[in-house]
Predict the structure.
Amino acid sequence: MCSVRPRMQACQHACIGCKKCEKICKFDAIHVIDNHAVIDYDKCRSCGLCVKECPKQCIVKQVGKRPAVVKPKTDAEPT
């Protein structure tokens, strides 16, 4: 059985500060601070409710990685 639990990751560049993720979290693990979602990984249980609730899709699950801020993708990325 895999012991690595998916972690939530929030993108500070896409977050609009709507607080939908904060309101849906049953573990009080996510708060909007300065209009950006901030996840308390000690409280987060990786239930995924915030991922489903985010209207900008800027909270994602990661498996086997440490949480980090996601860089937004652009159309003109250098090759």
User: Anything to note?
Assistant: The CA atoms of residues 29 and 41 lie 7 Å apart.
